[in-house]
Amino acid sequence: MTTKPRSVIIRDAISIGIAVGAYAISFGALGTTSGLTVLQTQLLSLLLFSGASQFAVVSIVGAGGNPASAWASSALLGMRNGLYGLRLAPLLGASGWRKPFAAHLTIDESTAMALANDDPADSSHRGARTGFWATGLSVFVFWNTATLLGAVAGSHISDPRVFGLDAAIPAGFAALVAPRLTTSLTRGLALVCAVVAVAVTPSVRPGVPVLIAALIALTTAMKFGEPIPPTTEDVSS
Amino acid sequence: MTANWAAVLGSCAIAYAIKLSGHLVPHRVLQRPLVRASAALFPVALLSALMAMQTLTTKGAIEVDARIPAMAAAALALRARWPFIAVVAVAAVVAAGVRALGWMS
Predict the structure, then answer these.
(1) Which has the closest alpha carbon to A143: A25, A2, A6, A10?
(2) Which pLDDT band, with edges at 50, 70 and 90, does B97 fall under?
(3) Does residue A123 lie within any of the structural domains?
(4) What is the ipTM of this complex?
(5) What is the spatial distance between Cα A90 and Cα A97, in angstroms, rounded to a whole number?
(6) What is the mean pLDDT of chain A?
(7) Same domain, A160 and A84
(8) Number of folded domains in chain B?
(9) Is there a domain that residue A233 lies in?
(10) Can you tell me whether residue A78 is helix, strand or coil?
(11) Interface of B with A in 57-76 (CB under 8 A)
(12) Interface contact flag, A57 B6, Cβ < 8 Å
């Protein structure tokens, strides 16, 4: 494999940023209609910057969950970013001030583009580096701009139910999980977690159903080892 | 309000710590099979649980309302490989429509 021209990688990165940024509009709107301020919603996009975790925090806050259950859900969803960093660190060779920035931009899309454009024969990994930084920065800019638009629009809506926004939240989760349901193991796990979470909701504190789902996932991981590699291919294709 | 600030800022700090750890921690810690398998399966489990709860429960009680037809529409949109924003929009439109027509709450 030869490295794609830099301009082609950058163009791809910009299209990914626009496509991914579009759904930050819905994130922004859901943030402010769930009871967060525009500033709090924006800070999640600026500082947390990982879609699934952000949607989880917003939905737990909206359901009246306590901060600890938001932290736990967000952290468990974000664990994969830690593994991405592990894979990326030797390719990026970032040192000094670049390292903390590289860590912040370590998300599904930037990782997928780095790995997709890495030429193993090139010891300086120029393709991977261009793919990572261009995609990370592009998604960051579009994601945050769209969040602001959505958050401001959402703050002008008095009853989110009239606009069906309460149905937009689970639809967003469905769209986030769908690309991961590639094996019978993941489909079975999804079904069990969905049923159990709803069944226990009336009898436990907010946030606990999600932790029970996490325990089910952990048990599955212990029993079946490594079923699938961390998924990054869904965005890069 | 303080609780919301705690939820937001705490989640941000933890998420960044996780990201940074991947770039700093020695390989062997994060490359244990259990850690890798958990990282792949947690999103599936948590997102499915959150999806089901947001569809079928309100403030800790099970409630069947316009979100059900909305999610059916979203499932069809996903099957047809519509983009994220279109899936979310179709769910909102169906829920709003069903309510406007007075078919479901």
Answers:
(1) A25
(2) very high
(3) yes
(4) 0.90
(5) 16
(6) 89
(7) yes
(8) 1
(9) no
(10) helix
(11) 57, 59-62, 66-67, 70-71, 74-75
(12) no
Domain check: are A158 and A56 in the same one?
yes
Cβ-defined contact of A231 to B40 (cutoff 8 Å): yes
> What would the pLDDT profile of B52-73 be if each residue is shown by its tens digit?
999 999 888 999 999 999 999 9
Q: Indicate whether A209 belongs to any domain.
A: yes
Q: Cα–Cα distance between B29 and B25 in angstroms, integer?
A: 7
Does residue A217 belong to the interface with chain B, where contact is any CB pair within 8 Å? yes
Q: Which domain holds residue B7?
A: 1-31
Number of domains chain A contains = 2
In a domain, residue A235? The reply is no
Confidence of residue B40 (pLDDT cuts 50, 70, 90): confident
What is the nearest CA distance from A158 to chain B, expressed in angstroms? 14
- For residue B57, being part of any structural domain is answered with no
A52 vs A11: CA distance, rounded Å:
25
Q: Which residue of A has its CA nearest to B10?
A: A71
3-state secondary structure at position B28: helix
Query: In which domain, by residue range, is A192 found?
Result: 181-228
Of B20, B43, B85, the CB nearest to A180: B43
Residue A235's pLDDT band, with cuts at 50, 70 and 90, is very low
Please indicate, yes or no, if residue B6 is contained in any of the structural domains.
yes
Same domain, A134 and A191: no
A7 CB neighbour count, 10 Å cutoff: 9
